[in-house]
Amino acid sequence: MNLDMIEAAAERLAGHARVTPMLSSPFLDEIAGRRVLIKPECLQHTGSFKFRGAWSAVSGLTEQQRAKGVIAFSSGNHAQGVALAAKAHGCAAVIIMPADAPRSKIENTRALGAEVVLYDRAAGQQREPIGAKMSAERGLTLIKPYDEPLVIAGQGSTGLEIARQAKDEGVDTADVLVCCGGGGLTSGIALALEGHAPGLRARPVEPEGFDDVARSLAAGSIQANSGPQQGLCDAIITPQPGNLTFPIIHRLCGPGLVVTDAQVTSAMKEAFRRLKLVIEPGGAVALAAALYHPGSLQGDAVIAVASGGNVDADLYAQVLADD
Amino acid sequence: MNLDMIEAAAERLAGHARVTPMLSSPFLDEIAGRRVLIKPECLQHTGSFKFRGAWSAVSGLTEQQRAKGVIAFSSGNHAQGVALAAKAHGCAAVIIMPADAPRSKIENTRALGAEVVLYDRAAGQQREPIGAKMSAERGLTLIKPYDEPLVIAGQGSTGLEIARQAKDEGVDTADVLVCCGGGGLTSGIALALEGHAPGLRARPVEPEGFDDVARSLAAGSIQANSGPQQGLCDAIITPQPGNLTFPIIHRLCGPGLVVTDAQVTSAMKEAFRRLKLVIEPGGAVALAAALYHPGSLQGDAVIAVASGGNVDADLYAQVLADD
């Protein structure tokens, strides 16, 4: 896994993924006590950065592999990214999703042409045997959500844009806060910044109770989450960092940051008020850290990736209504 | 009022106004039955295109004028645009606002450093005498919201970006739907397109009951709204088109389009679901026309300007909750 792979992925993505802008608001600067720049990947195709990795992976397969189709496991954002990337390549996609994933994510994945297979995680049903059986029968290629070089390379294209845009904004040194689940986006951005913006340092951000990456960084080895596997920030809840992603994160990233659910919903409201952006809970953890953990950050500026915006309307309305 | 003035304004705006991206969603294309491109000016500084005209106007004053300060009348978006543009120029700003304007717009205008003077329009209080008295006493320069060449020129910079971005997207012919109040944005965009993208045609869009521009276009002369001066789409409700803006709109624009409040809230929900954008009611009329008036449009593509996103959280939550 190296910078060349990210640059190659960025070339495959050119004209297909959206170059998202860099946003800001004086009101957010005031809360944070420093300049805040937001990289809104919620504006990416399918509403999250996952489209980048999915496009990178599908476009990196052989014709023969694409002819048989792809399969993915996902609670939603990777699912939609793979569905749209596969559709655009004329490639069949099977997505294994938990039956209790946000309704909009399941509906969108279907509407993007994928065959969705639901499993009941509450009843202890495992997704891997379901996927293994379908893959074996149909010769589908598995596209992992993060522990896959082509996917990490695609997510890393976000980091190339951040490096360029930060320079345009006159920001040479800053913490770059990344919403972190399995670590694909964080490791990809970290590699891109190492090559193109050495003054910018990636840092993973996680929700309280699901801070496996922060604890792994502190321990120097992979630590898993115990307890429940579900929470408000569903998009970025994973059992533990990836075997490919963690060594990169460990080598390049600063310490992990952990935010509360209350900070997450507050950041979602600020994004609504000040940026006119819809951010889902898992996509708001980095902004929450930028706004509410100023003492843990270094530099005159902070860059926060808003990684996705796929939140159901009823949950969003409830977040806005709470005071 | 001509193209040179728009290009000069665009130069003054460079590096200060945001170049907003061009967004899209396959789900919106499907509803509209054609390709839909959205120009999200809700992502502009202060959450609406009004910042462009305000910056153009303040930067176009003499040093002496700026030293005395500026004054504006506005229900909210022009107010915030003028407040921020004035602050960035080190210039005092007085804004006369109706006391029943959306709370967030009043608060933001104050927070951006302007002196806000409220008047009670329900009680029949008139804003003009209040403004005239303050202007006379302090030598403030009035920045009109639309019937002012420097303001039209600033709004027209949106049209320069649309011309360039449409070309990048391979769109040569399309209706460009513009949320229309007094006509500053519509006339500015129309002039920019005339010069840079003759295959693109600007068309004003208004809410039902406040369709003065559509009726004026049909009649060939300025017509006024009768009845109430308030409605869901507060940002774009004006008594009648401007004396400067209407002749430009009449010469260059296609027929006006009129949408219902139900179509407006539906478009707001689609922007939430499919674009992750917060759009205020007045900023959603163009998207509503793009989605729900396909028979009135020409071409394989349509471009809709989402002109602003300054909506109060309680109203927005209510819109999302309604099925």
Description:
The structure is a homodimer of 323-residue chains. With 323 residues, chain A is α/β, with parallel strands linked by helices. Chain A folds into two domains: 3-48 and 148-321, Rossmann fold (3-Layer(aba) Sandwich); 51-142, Rossmann fold (3-Layer(aba) Sandwich), CATH 3.40.50.1100. Chain A is 46% helix and 14% strand. Chain A is built from 14 helices and nine strands. The first copy, chain A, has helices spanning 3-13, 26-32, 50-59, 63-68, 77-88, 103-111, 127-138, 149-168, 184-196, 212-219, 245-252, 261-275, 285-292, 313-321; strands at residues 35-40, 70-73, 93-98, 115-119, 141-142, 174-179, 200-207, 257-259, 301-306. In chain A, strands 1-9-6-7-8 form a five-stranded parallel sheet, with helices on both faces. In chain A, helix 1 packs across helix 3 and helix 12 crosses helix 13 (285-292). Chain A is globular. The first copy, chain A, starts with a helix and ends with a helix. The relative contact order of chain A is 0.17. Chain A binds chain B through residues 18-21, 23, 26-27, 40, 42-43, 47, 84, 104, 108, 111-112, 269, 272-273, 275-279, 309, 313-314, 316-318, 320-321, and chain B through 18-21, 23, 26-27, 40, 42-43, 47, 84, 104, 108, 111-112, 269, 272-273, 275-279, 309, 313-314, 316-318, 320-321.
